[in-house]
């Protein structure tokens, strides 16, 4: 397990325009200084949080995935973020983890935001995903998943944790920014893991404002990135493997965690 350099990009998004968003992110990625093991983009980074997936250009997902592969290769890093995908007639809010060699892993958003009618057009994911990366185990999640701690709960078996990092990509509205920050801290503390939340800024196509507050929280619940509101931000933060392991060895709360299984509907 080595230290990881994590870059997250907090940006405004152009509504339903994947080409414009890809141009914006490509420019931001090209300006990243130094080495980064992982670059994380917000939820639906190529369109904004659109719940009418049939209104998105049919080639948007394929072009966006090809773009992620190109960016990952050119920067020799992992690129991650979610987008709308039509998979055999079913729409998913799908997280992509794209390697420099073009290979990728995916996670489909489990908890669909019914208040915003996401559940009417999208199909919920049915699989929890853990990604192995440079000795770390990383669990990707998407926006509304943050409100469901059981789905993001860590487990401990014979000295081994299910994951070391939680990632939430989001389009989380400004009106609920206090919940966003509070829940990210809670997830880090209760799981003894680094927790990363990457949110957008600006107004979406419905006029809903987003304030950002993207950040990285260490396992004790402290923010180790700058809390930036309402403006675009690109931050690269080093995650210390030694700090994580020493804290877990010193404060062995994992020994007392409840054991349970999740039954999917």
Structural summary, described in words:
The chain has about 260 residues and is α/β, with parallel strands linked by helices. The chain has a single domain, classed as Nitrilase/N-carbamoyl-D-aminoacid amidohydrolase. The strands form four sheets. Strands 5-4-3-2-1-15 form a six-stranded mixed β-sheet. It has a five-stranded mixed β-sheet with strand order 6-7-10-11-14, with helices on one face. It has a two-stranded antiparallel sheet with strand order 8-9. Strand 2, helix 2 and strand 3 form a beta-alpha-beta unit. Helix 1 runs parallel beside helix 2. It is globular and about 50 Å long.
Q: Helix and strand succession?
A: EHEHEEEHEEEEEHEEEEEH
Count of individual beta strands: 15
Beta fraction: 25-35%
Integer count of domains: 1
What is the CA-CA span between the terminal residues? 36 Å
Runs with pLDDT <50, length 5+? none
Helix content: 10-25%
Using the coordinates above, name the CATH class. Answer: Alpha Beta
Average pLDDT taken over every residue:
96
CATH topology: Nitrilase/N-carbamoyl-D-aminoacid amidohydrolase
Q: What is the level-2 CATH architecture name?
A: 4-Layer Sandwich
Shape: globular
Radius of gyration: 17 Å
The major pleated sheet works out as:
6 strands, mixed
The number of distinct helices, counting runs of at least 4 residues, comes to: 5
